[in-house]
Amino acid sequence: MQAYVGETLLKRLIVFYIPLFLFVAAMLFPFYWMFITSIKPDFELYNVRRSPFIVSQATLEHWFYLFKETMFARWAWNTFWIATASTAISLFAGVLAGYSLSRLRFPGSATFGISIFITYLVPPTLLFIPLASVIANLRLLDSPWALILTYPTILVPFSAWLLMGYFKTIPRELEECARIDGATRLQAMTKIVLPLSMPGILSAGIFSFTLSWNEFLYALVFISSPQQKTIPVGVVSELMKGDVFFWGSLMAGALLGSIPVAFVYSFFVENYVSGMTGAVKG
Amino acid sequence: MAHEAAQQRGETAPGRMRRRDFLAHTGKAGAAWAAVAGTNWLTGQAPAFAQERTLHVLEWSSFVAPADVERDRQAAEFGKQAGVKVTIEHINANDLPARATAAIEGSTGPDILQLLSNYPLLYSEGLDDHNDLITELGGDEIYQFIREAVRDEKGVHRGVPNFFGGGANVYRKDIFEEVGIPGPPDTWDEYLEAGKKLKHFGMPVGQSLGHTFGDAPGFAYTLLWCFGGKEVDEDGRVALNSKETANAVDFLKEFWSAACDEGGLAWDDTSNNRAFLAETIACTLNGASIYFVARNDPRKVAPGFADRLGHFLIPKGPNGRYHGVGPFTNCITRYSSNKEAARDYIRFVHQDDNFEKFLLVNKGYINGPLPKWQEHPMWEEDPAVTIYRELPKYGRNLGYAGPYNRHSSEAFAKYIIVDLFAKAVRGDSTQSVIASAEKELKNIYEG
Amino acid sequence: MKSTSQSVPTATSDTLEAGARLSFGRRIGLWLENEAVLGYVLMVPALLLIVVFIAYPFSLGVWMSLTDKLVGTPGKFVGLANFAKLLRSEIFYQAAWNTVVFTIAATVIKGVFGMWLAILLNRKFRLARFTRATVLLPFIVPTVLSGLAWLWMFDATFSVFNWTLKWMWQMEISVFGMALKENWGYFRGPLWLGSPALAMFSIILVNAWRGLPFFAITLLAGLQTVPPELYDAGDIDGTNEFQKFWHITLPLIKPIAVVVTVFSFVVTFSDFQVVYILTRGGPHNSTHLLATLAYQLGMTSGNLGEGAAAALFMFPILGLVILWQLFYLRREGSD
């Protein structure tokens, strides 16, 4: 951290507080808008002559609609479980691959490292058309497993990269001491390196969970029945309809769909930063 | 008031049928369908599977909300009779094609896909043969323009058109009067004059030219036809580049800047509904859904708003009057493991009594697949929507004047004709927009 | 994999002689003591996922792009016809160009503003933790959902921005001048999603809004690794803030900056959600990106072969990025 001794208040206002305030305002305005839209009754929402900033008769009807007329609770559960399972799979694969690539010397490790790295440059939008037929052949269409198994392909490269950096920050000597004491390589990894790498693993986990929670294209293409949908797909396909769309409920759904990840982050943001810092140092 | 008056007129006017007469008139056919449909689930081996059978139907989400409710009710009723668990899923019509692609490619998903306009041709390889069902449910009596939209090159019908919707212009009678427009315009030139006044007043014509399924193509294609332009000729050769097309483009350029809300370039099918109800536009091409909401949903509009609305047909151009009328077609998928139940379901919704209920709840928003539904007294009940029954007279399908095939659906899916006009109103030269649209069409039709 | 089979017997034979008969589990354990074996074994889960769900679909995609596959048909080999067809289509050129403009503009905005925000967040201030959590919000919420909020804010009729502009006009603190005043009757404000240039601006804005926090937080992590002593040395020399940033901070955080920029470049280049929600490619394809074009061709007009070909056109540029990054990594590694 830098110390800013001798900075005048005016200077601090101009170079720091005002820009920061503008950043925060710009980042948060759409959320304020979601909220205010979600509590407006329709006749206020669709009236251009009223100030859109003011709600005179706040209502929760749009929020109730979400739960009464759509399967929102079900989508939330699907999203949560798909995100959790795919995060677990990617952490498992990412930790092992990251450890292997950063700690173990074996022929071809550089090639493996590069190939994992390359895969994160092959985006879903390039793959979804053929991947849909792979998923269909595996008889996984319209099943949560279609997503649980495909999301890790987006997540593993980044997790492995982040963890490789983190593992490198842990002194080799610790592991070697343990091995002299009779621990196997696997034990040294699970008992010594992994516990020390928890911040990095947590960062990778948070990152993976967020990406899975947010994913849209695969969920849109692979999932069709309403009870299998995730929040992003459910909200878009079941509320963007009718003669004027359900704007109030759309915004309520958008907010509700954002809260769980926001909650996770508010606890872990410092951890995320320090985890990334660890990875970067290495 | 208007409602009562209409009913009285309907009862006193000579030669007009009442609801009961109408049913008696068409009852025989209905009974026959019911009998055919009935045998399929009341006899045979079906009961053995009765408990497990499910039927998944994917439909659009109607702009007239009670229509979805009635659909769901009928599906439940059918389910009870047939011992099938029917699920109807209503989604945004813009998402139907992508879902159809995913379902057909993966051979899993809905048993019945509702496809709009000529989309059944695009998916013909994944859809069942419906020729027998078509014959059973009306055959040649079904309007030609909707039957052709579902019949592929091999002569196989890939679905059964359930109903069709089309647009007429909904307008504000009070605003027209206020700005001194004598009456609903009959020609595009009159419409232009009216539009100028409306825009000057501050409530212009609202028209979508965005990437969306209904209003934008419904406007762009018909405008083209009214001026004599066409995508392809009778032999299916691209024939867009013509003087007539240029006239249509030139006309719209003027019309757009002089009469329209420029926001239309970003509109989807719901935007004009919202704008009209929010009183920022005075006229727009739409199905009867705006009127329906104005009449039936007091929470969305000011009191008496519906009485200020009227409808008029798409104006006449040098080549006459046209309406784009897209059928909504139930298509049984080839992979469905429940085709018999799916056919029964289609028979069920086409039964006279069921279809009548559906027609009534839509209050003019949809038209039936057979000409006899145009005789239904419902059309007389509310004079504001009577005009919608005229649409079949001017009905053309997308891809006119060519033989209907998957290429016309592809041109529709790529918004070629919509973008032809959208580009022009943004200031590109008439020749260049036609040339580039022609190039895309040749890419589509001639590979 | 050949090297594994060769190294296994030699490595384990010594230990096998020492302990007479070993149980199966014990033998596996010993086997895993070999560095190379363990190295390969630990790679298996990741490689399996990558082969089944990336490498195989990718080659399938290449095959599909060489066929005339329509929805519901197997398709037959047509060589490069799909690519040729795309190269004859103006829509394709437009989408390709849009993708380039979109990616470069959005990445630059995210980089510059993300850096700025990271520097701000690196200071000590009250509520620092809370502020970091809040600015991260746009990145963590599902893009389609925040995209919906933007769609509503950009709505041609109900835009809050345009309402505010109109209100400012009515308050006679207009910034637009007389030209608009004359046309006020049907002035709706800027067509955020309706005019080609503004629509492009809008999707760039939304993409940048969404991706900026990731830049900021990751760069913040980089900034925290810079030892404060370095700045003290700079103070003595009398350098200004910008010089300090340019000569001290930037070189030190360059590795992480490169990684985050490449990552963001790839994600932006292949973006789908923002356009899908906001414009669906309209008005007249002026916001179509390669990803949305591939979706339109493959999913909504049923030309899977052509759609796959359109998606593959993303690959050359991504390939260049991959090569550049590999080169960069190797150079860094040899330092």
Summarize the structure.
The complex is a heterotrimer of chains A (282), B (447) and C (335). With 447 residues, chain B is α/β, with parallel strands linked by helices. Chain B is built from 20 helices and ten strands.
Mean pLDDT of chain B: 85
SS-derived structural category of chain B: alpha/beta
State the largest interface.
Answer: A-C, 103 and 110 residues
Helicity of chain B, in percent?
40-55%
Could you list the spans of chain B in which at least 5 consecutive residues all have pLDDT below 50?
Answer: 1-51
CATH topology of the largest domain in chain C: MetI-like fold
Main beta-sheet annotation of chain B: 6 strands, mixed
Structural class of chain C: mainly alpha
Rounded mean pLDDT of chain C is 82
Q: How big a fraction of the residues of chain C is strand?
A: under 5%
Outline of chain C: flat
Structure, described:
- The complex is a heterotrimer of chains A (282), B (447) and C (335).
- Chain A has helices spanning 9-38, 42-45, 61-69, 72-103, 109-119, 124-137, 144-168, 172-180, 185-196, 198-214, 217-222, 231-239, 247-281.
- Chain A has 282 residues and is an all-alpha fold.
- In chain A, helix 7 runs antiparallel to helix 10.
- Chain B has 447 residues and is an alpha/beta fold.
- In chain B, 46% of the residues lie in helices and 12% in strands.
- In chain B, helix 2 runs antiparallel to helix 15.
- The radius of gyration of chain B is 22 Å and the shape is globular.
- Chain C has 2 domains: 1-65, no CATH class; 81-156 and 191-334, MetI-like (MetI-like fold, Orthogonal Bundle).
- Chain C is built from 17 helices and no strands.
- Chain C has helices at 2-18, 24-33, 35-65, 81-87, 90-121, 128-135, 137-140, 143-153, 160-170, 178-182, 196-223, 228-237, 241-269, 273-278, 290-300, 304-312, 314-334.
- The longest helix of chain C has 32 residues, at 90-121.
- Chain C is flat and about 70 Å long.
- Classes of the chains: A mainly alpha (282), B alpha/beta (447), C mainly alpha (335).
- Chains in contact: A-B, A-C, B-C.
